[in-house]
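Hello Y.,

Per our agreement to keep a running log of every chain we model this quarter, I'm adding this entry. I've kept the format consistent with earlier entries: sequence first, then predicted structure.
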Amino acid sequence: MLDLVAAFIVLTTLLTYVNYRFIRLPPTIGVMATALIFSLIAQGLSLLGYPLIEIEAQQIIRRIDFSDILMTWFLPALLFAGALHVDLSDLRSYKWPIGLLATVGVLIATSVIGTLAYYIFALFGWHVDFIYCLLFGALISPTDPIAVMGILKSAGAPKPLATTIVGESLFNDGTAVVVFTILLGILQLGSTPTLGTVSWLFVHEAVGGVLVGAALGYGVLLMLRSIDQYQVEVMLTLALVFGGAALAARLHVSGPIAMVVAGLIIGNLGRKHAMSDESRRYVDGFWELIDEILNALLFALIGLELLLLPFSWLHIVAAFVLGGAVLVARLLTVAPAVFIMRRRADGRRQVSHGAIRILTWGGLRGGVSVALALSLPLGEERDLLLSLTYIVVLTSILLQGLSIGPLVGRLYRDQPQPATDDHH
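Predicted structure for the entry above:
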């Protein structure tokens, strides 16, 4: 196991170096792109009669449980680190669009994508049960703005858009995982539960996650207030994330939602009332570093997964059609939220005419979707959905991620940006 971890870290570091030194794409997109290039080179050498690199890389990737690693280790830490730097007052200002996108939006997207996927699969000659189509809709619904946030900021995106995308992403991962879990339970039961049962499962997972996150967050907050030693405070936050995620899994509540709530509590109340300037600096630095390292590892893994998945031209064409369906569903969820944002926004926070385009095109898909696809029951449906999910995620990150910056720049180049007070 140690040699596996060492090999993967070394490979990811080399890919990160190559991107920074030569390619210079945005960090997460660049790491994934270099991993993708590495995968293609390995496959090319294999076709030329030199399969050693591809075989070694495949052995490393096969031994990695992507789904377990992401859901148990990566996702709780990434969501906590993201929530740690979000101002609660900003979330309150845009709570309606964020709340709609992260809850009702996920449900609408799941239904729309699932229905469109059912007909798209039939168009390509694949008979896929509707429950699997809904599972595909649920796993592809959560947006992953990790790769796009830096681009939005450097391109001068208005604060309402940036806040909405961050706030939505923090909560829609948890909502989508809850919806996916419920649908997976229905598939495994082989029968459709009552509406009351489904509603109770949703409330138990989602509300339970909020309560567990709040309890853990306030508990650690009290401990932070009683000391002033940055090493211990950093360790407390680390224990909160991984211990809290394990506890949430044991209680069958949403770990992602729990970590978002805990991160908001520590990042806001903890900063103001429980940390000295020195402690705040070290806690911030630690979690920013963890965030960067885990993102690099995650996107490298996404790029390297190409070595394991079987593809055909039919898969690629179908995935592009499904990608269009995902964008249609995104548009249908974004537009109502933007209309609400416009009605409730004051003059200082007025939403521009380009908000729908930015929110739609900036809703990238990422590692959570791949991890959920990997957790599907073994079978032909899993293999098909996994390959299609991977291509949709890959093209989303590369195509949308690399073009969202120019789009933002073109829309807002000549618009004055309001002065904002950064929380951190």
